[in-house]
Design brief:
single chain, 112 residues, Serine Threonine Protein Phosphatase 5, Tetratricopeptide repeat, 6 helices
Length: 112
């Protein structure tokens, strides 16, 4: 129980830090903090928190494109691990979150 409480407090602190960074438009720091938030949720195997964080962090008004890109790339590296260790249901939830945050933002390239 204490671990969950500590995780929640750290998560709130990091989100507040991210909001401050967004106001400063510091792309590198914003990407680091945003990815750290996702890594905390992933390391704790808290996939509900991971999905909600991914969705809310990418929808913040003024979110820097580089930070969103970094979060999506990081999350994609976990897909196979989630599928193997957590099962198809959790994997599909994460894929759906990625689909939602990238909808209309990913360009398709046709082969020549």
């Amino acid at each position: 129980m204490q671990k969950c409480k500590s995780l929640a407090l750290l998560h709130v602190y990091l989100i507040r830090s991210l909001i401050v960074l967004l106001q400063a438009s510091d792309g590198t720091s914003t990407s680091r903090v945003a990815c750290a938030i996702l890594e905390i949720a992933h390391d704790a195997r808290n996939y509900d928190l991971l999905n909600s964080s991914l969705n809310s962090l990418t929808k913040k008004h003024g979110q820097l494109k580089g930070a969103v890109e970094a979060m999506v790339i990081l999350t994609m590296t976990w897909l196979e691990d989630v599928r193997t260790k957590e099962g198809e249901k959790r994997w599909l939830e994460l894929v759906e979150s990625l689909r939602t945050v990238t909808e209309g933002k990913v360009r398709h390239c046709d082969s020549l």
